[in-house]
Structures are given as C-alpha cells and as structure tokens.
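Box 3.1. Reading complex inputs
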Amino acid sequence: MNDLITANKRRTVFLMVGFVVVVIGVGWAVGLVVGNGATGTVVAGAIAAVMAFTSYWKSDAIALRVSRAVPAGEEEYRRLHNLVEGLCIASGLPKPRVYVIHDPAPNAFATGRNPKHAALAFTTGLLEQMNRVELEGVVAHELSHIKNYDILVSTLAVTLVGTIAIVTDLAIRTMWWNGGRVHRSGDHADRNNPLAFVGLALLILAPLVARAMQSAVSRRRETLADVSAVRLTRYPPGLIGALEKLQADTTVTHSASMATAHMWIEQPMAGVGDSGHLGAWHKLFNTHPPLSERIALLREI
Amino acid sequence: MVVGVLLVGAFVLYNGLVRRRNEVDNAWSQIDVQLKRRLDLIPNLVETVKGYTAHERVALEAVIAARSNAMGAGSTPHEQAAADNQLTGALRQLFALAEAYPDLKANQGFVSLQEELANTESRIAYARQFYSDAVLAYNTAIQAVPGVIVARVFGFTEREYFEAEEAARQVPRVQF
C-alpha cells in the first residue's frame, strides 16, 4: 500500500513536469504560428508555473465548483454522513468534507490534495438509487482514492488538462480570426513561414496528448480502488451491486465535463461506445475500464 | 563505515516498529471512544423505555447489568469483546420487546436513540476492523526478518486480535 502511495506522489511530480513541458511547447507553437517563438515560450512558461501552483492548492475547490457540488447538510444527509464517518474509522482517515450534486444520474467522486484536505461528492441520483450496503461500497471506493493519494494526481489532472485545452483552443480560434488584428503590411513577410505549420500541428496534438495522459492516470486507479474498497468493507456484494446499478443506468452525468471525466466512479459521458468504426480509438481515451470488467474482477475475490 | 550503516538501518527499523505499535494503541483507543459513546447512550434509553414498559423489568435490568459489566470489564481485547457482546444481546432483546409498544415506537426520542445506537454499533465494528488491520501490520513487522531482530532486542511483543470480529460485524449490518 505504501509503495502505491509513493508511486502516486512520484507520478504527481511527473504530471506537473509533463504539464509544464506541454504548456511551454504550446507557447512555443503559438509563437511559431504568430511568428515570435521566444515571447510565446516565456509567456507560456509563466502561465504554466502559476497554473501548476494554483492547481496544487486550489484544484479541489475548482473541481467541486465546476461540478456544481454543494455541501451536504448533516441532518438532511444523515445516512451518508454516518457511512462516511464509519468507514473513516475503519480506514483511519480523517473525515473528509461531504458534498452533494443535484443530478439524477448516479455518480460520485473524491478530490483534494491529501487526506487532511479531501472532499467527497455524490449525486442525488446515486443517493436515491443505492441501498445502504451499495452506498457503503461506493463510499469505500472513494475513500480508497483518498487513501492512495489518487485524488492528488487526478485533481491536478483536471486543472492541467483543462488549461491545455483552453490555451490551445484559444490559440486556434485567435488564428482563425487573425488574432483580432487588422491586415498589416508586415503580415506578408510571414506568408512563407513554414514553421507555422509545425506550430499548428502541435496545437492540434497537444489536447490529445493531454487526454491520453489523463486516461493513463486514471484507468488502473479505478480497479485498484475497487479492490481496496472491498478490503475496507469486507463485503464484495455491496460494491458489485452498486456497479451493476451503474451499469444498468444510462443517464449522462450533466455535472461532469470532459476535464473532470476521470474523477468519477463511473465514466460520466455518453456516446463513448466501444462499437462503431471508431471504437478502438475511443477505447484509447476511455477514462475508466468497462464496468463489466470491474464487476468480473470483484466477483473473483 | 559498515557499523554506521548497520546502526542507521537499526534506527530506521526501530522507528518503523514504534510507529506501528503506536498505530495499534491509537486504533485501540478508537474502539474505546466508540464503546464509551454507546455506554453513555444507555441511561437515556433506559429512562425513555421505562415510562412506557413498566412491567418489562427483566429486559431493562439485563441492559443495566450488562452496561455496568461492560464498564468494569478488563482491558484485553478478549474480555472487552465478551462484555460488549453481552450488552449487544441485551439491547437487542429490549428493542425486540419495544415492538409490542406502539406508543414507544412512535416516540421521537426513542427512535433517534435507536438509530444512534445502531450507528454506534456499526462504528464499534469499524473501529475493531481498523484495530485488526493495525495489529496485522504490527505483528507481521515484528515477526518478519529483519524486524524480528530489533523486536527481540527491544522487547516488542505481539498483540491480540479480536476473535469474533467477522461474526460481530455482520450482525448490525443485517439488522439496520
């Protein structure tokens, strides 16, 4: 278990460094497109540094905010609080903050940077559909994410992947509209700038790289959290039942966005089917292993 | 040089064992916290039930007796578990009796006490589980090489598990 935690902390460092490198690369690419590589790189470096820093301290607040999570009242959500407190005793973790999301689709996620600064969020749909043992399985799954420091890696990924998406999007759109500039005579000099194509290619590739990073970070974590959850509840049928209900449910979690997709207990997006002519490609970017695989694994325990 | 390396290694091992042993102690005190919480709830429960079920003295007295028994119980996991199981049984009988008194079952104070007790019971189970995990980690550390050498020299001894742990854990889950 401790090896895992060390591995996750190391992975976080890699992720941060990788992110800084990608952002600087994006800045360089923007510079190439616009025709001024050095300035772009410096500006991007500065943005990357600030973003990496804020992600570490503020990413849990950001993740909760974009998912429209509100604090769960002690009285109104008594059962949920009791379960969380009980499982925290069993795992030796401090009690995290508990949030609910008003969304009929059943789903949940954990966020934060360490067990002392952690939060759990559950959709109202999940709370309505799950019985006590199933909910216990889900809570244990999320607490395992906290205990294994998965939350640090995945929450950082939210802001880092999100930033790359926004920056590249911005750059491409800016280019489309000529950066808001009116036509100037100097522009003619750039017409034969072959590097601009390199820049453009990089800008298109960057979000894909970011997304692949996100998938790599999360898929294995999910299976691991399932196993640790069962170790915590000592009752596999609970989590199996919960996953089966998630599998049977086809509603889309509207509160989730592409950037937070990997954090949830179940893949929140629809249309990422494994069939169709692009099925193999979709699999590459799936943030979660198929539910049927996860259920089959738990059955073997 | 070699002596220095060995010495540092011994320090690291020793500190690791101390940390694990403290975790076991901490886990143990967590159980005590939950057990005490349950004992504190019982006088309230007895008061509430008394008003409704004047002629069910036996069940009430069994609970009171089990409570004082649990308060005076010894400090080994085994003794504590025995006293605690007695209390759990007495409480269960009392709640079974309460089924025959609709007025009592409608009492808001009684309902919330019942919930609170059910809750505390599952927390006791969780705390015991945490204790067992801590003991497992600690016992493994002092039995395996190289920890066993340091453990022998400084007198780290094995800790006791909860025997009926799994059985006791199932009960409150099924009922509530």
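In summary: The two ends of chain A are 18 Å apart (CA to CA).
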